[in-house]
Design brief:
about 170 residues; alpha/beta; Glutaredoxin; two-stranded antiparallel sheet
Length: about 170
């Protein structure tokens, strides 16, 4: 069963790209963006990582940490983290333990796991969950930042406007 909104997020423990043990419960008192990747073969997942990197300061300003969980092995994670200078926490899950615990969907006709994103608040409650229906179905950072503003009790401001492509 997928975690329900306002339920306590299931705790887990994985080693990060530096070999350190990381538990979700270590982040109580902070908001967490939990991003489940399809794998580094996916161009949308690589783009998501770069976008999260580029706005990492905005997430940090909202007292949020980013945990990226993916099916690739430690060596591949380390290479991607180094090549892209990623400042947040990367968690290899080649055995799909946490992905299965959070019910990351697998669609064989769409080439495997679908992306998923959870927002977990300071008390450890799931406040938002998105299970992608396609490889590219990933919430934009502006949306996640607005949710964090609302959870933090701040006015989210005007709806983000996308600049027209010229």
């Amino acid at each position: 069963m997928k975690p329900k909104e306002f339920s306590i997020a299931p705790d887990f423990e994985l080693n990060d790209v530096h070999g350190r043990s990381v538990r979700l419960s270590d982040f109580r008192g902070r908001n967490v963006i939990l991003a489940f990747l399809r794998g580094f073969h996916c161009p949308y997942c690589r783009s998501q990582l770069r976008n999260l990197r580029d706005e990492y300061g905005a997430f940090q300003a909202r007292e949020a940490e980013i945990l990226a969980v993916g099916p690739d092995d430690l060596k591949t994670f380390k290479n991607i983290w180094t090549e892209n200078d990623l400042p947040f926490i990367g968690l290899p899950d080649p055995g799909h333990i946490v992905a299965d615990q959070y019910k990351q969907e697998v669609r064989l006709l769409k080439l495997g796991r679908m992306p998923a994103v959870m927002l977990i608040d300071r008390q450890g409650q799931v406040r938002f969950q998105h299970y992608g229906g396609s490889m590219a179905d990933i919430p934009e950072n502006a949306f996640l930042l607005r949710l964090l503003d609302m959870i933090n009790g701040k006015s989210p401001g005007p709806e983000p406007v996308k600049e027209p492509v010229t």
